[in-house]
User: Fold these one by one.
Assistant:
Number 1:
Amino acid sequence: MSPDSLTRGSARSAAEVNEQIRALWMRAGGTLSSQERAEYELLVVEWAAAIRNAVIEAA
């Protein structure tokens, strides 16, 4: 998943992405490896895009 694709909008809802973030933290036991950190950062960007899209659609 590239950051460019995320700026055009998330295919998933913020709630779906948030659930994946929570699952990642649970699997990691609260401490992220380098690879998990990279995945987390992409998920946070996707989550933020989904929030922005939801606000824009609501407006």
Number 2:
Amino acid sequence: MSSRPTYSDEFKADAVALAESSGRPLALVAAELGISLTALKRWVKLSREGQSGEGKKPDQPVDATKYKALEARLREVERENEFLKKVSAFFAKEQR
């Protein structure tokens, strides 16, 4: 038998929402709810990771043609940027 209590997903979501919206320290919220601080911290961390999408694979694979087009556009913009740097240096030198 496990001595660890189990909580429903709804309870965990409510606890995370309370912890984030109250502005109070997590330790205080955990004590009020009668849960361990470690558990609440873990739930908050998992909630934040789920919202930001970190560590998850994209739903769709990258389209090769779109990827190549973006690479070409990036090279073009980099060339334009280099040109603008040279022009800017030229005019700065000419102004002196």
